[in-house]
Amino acid sequence: MIYFTLTVICGPIDLICFLASIKDYAGGQTPYADTTLLVSSLAMLTIDVFYLSWMYSLSHRVPPYVSAGVAKAAFGMMGYMYDALGEKLKS
Length: 91
Description:
This protein is mainly α and 91 residues long. Helices cover 85% and strands 0% of the residues.
């Protein structure tokens, strides 16, 4: 749950950093610092989007009885997944 919350909070911040680095690109200072800032902010934004899309795709790749457990496990709540899979394995 903590990683998801931090991703949701940091996603807009990464977008703002990316847009600010595009706006200030090569504005009279050395271009190497601008390029590094642009690439690093793009990498962080890509990681945010990839993580959120990966979590969304989890519900489509697993059977329905596991879907809710996997989604909650991705948010950091493993208890529900252990219970759901434990009941399926026992029967």
